[in-house]
Fold this sequence. Notes:
Blueprint: E1 2-5, H1 7-17, E2 32-38, E3 41-47, E4 51-58, E5 60-63, E6 65-70, H2 71-79, E7 86-91, E8 94-99, E9 102-107, E10 126-130, H3 131-141, E11 156-162, E12 165-171, E13 175-182, E14 189-194, H4 195-208, E15 211-217, E16 220-225, E17 228-233, E18 252-257, H5 258-268, H6 270-273, E19 280-285, E20 288-295, E21 299-306, E22 308-310, E23 314-318, H7 320-330, E24 334-339, E25 346-351, E26 360-364
Antiparallel strand pairs: 1-5, 1-7, 2-3, 2-6, 3-4, 4-17, 7-8, 8-9, 10-15, 11-12, 11-14, 12-13, 13-26, 15-16, 16-17, 18-22, 18-24, 19-20, 19-23, 20-21, 24-25, 25-26
Helix pairs in contact: 1-2, 3-4, 5-7
Amino acid sequence: MKLRAERAEFAEAISWATRTVGTRVSLPALSGVYLEAADGKLVCRATDLEVSAEISIPVQIDQPGRVLLPGRLLAQLVARFPDAPVELSVETDQIEITCGRATFHVRGMQVEDFPTLASPGEEAAQGVVKADAFARLVSQVARAAASDEGRPVLTGVNLEAADGTLTAAATDSYRLAVRSLTFDEAVEGTALVPARSLQEAAKAASEVGGSVTVVLEEGQASFLFGDRRLTTKLIEGSFPNYRALLPEAHETSVVVERAALVEALQRVAIVAMGQANTPVSLTFGDESVDLQASNQEMGDAAEALPARIEGEGLTIAFNPAFLLSGLEASGTEHIRIELRDGLKPAVLKPHADDGQVDDLTYLLMPMRVS
């Protein structure tokens, strides 16, 4: 194997592939990046058996071939290469990499040990969404997925493609985030995707831009970005019927400036953060929202903000970190909070007087205050 590549393209390909290389792997080959040169292009692949990444770049090939190189080492070397073409040649298990005046000799790994990566079926239906919209959807919804592996289905994001719309939902049983967006080219199907995998796909969408092709198949989902692809295994099991949790009506509606509420919550929550399960109470009434938190060891804090309130006043308490996450997800100037009473879940939605906001619903369970 012998090839010549442009430094920027080669560095970007290695950076893309190594995003799925783990530091703790069950098989040594999983710490490597598989390089295959043929037909005028270099294909780079890596996997941790849950998520696989693949990218191809044009290269000048003098001798086709394939090799498996240590992923982290290669990524660190390439990131520091000078601005010059990269030449790579393989002799037995010794690989020589030259860039400008720098030359490195890297010992290769057993290429036969690298697993065959799953790829989308040729007949699989594909949907297309805008990359920036996809990345935003994932950032708003995936934050509600559980990090505890005790209930695996809650560590995923449920994707449902139907009627020209992609709907994403995630819950850790304390909160629920749901958001939809419209396909440019529609596809039908459902998939319970690990939140970590989906966040990698969203990160790639932000980096590459343009559009994302979504392929939902039995057992796996793929996200294609031009010459790049991420494929992930799906989580087995049934996602909860989250639609049954969404209230059909509310008694009280509050509109408040989001940034001001975030800042007030961060200040008041300082006394709550020092003790586990200390809530922040919000009292709505008299055109204001009053925040309060108390901690037997640290003291208490309170702050009031103006708010537009429709309906009866009430008091409700939340986990401050979960509430803050919901406020941050909307990104709008104002937030709308829909309430029934102090013991039933509240619903947070982005708000704008012209109605031009994301279709995001963030449901949050209250905490009981003794």
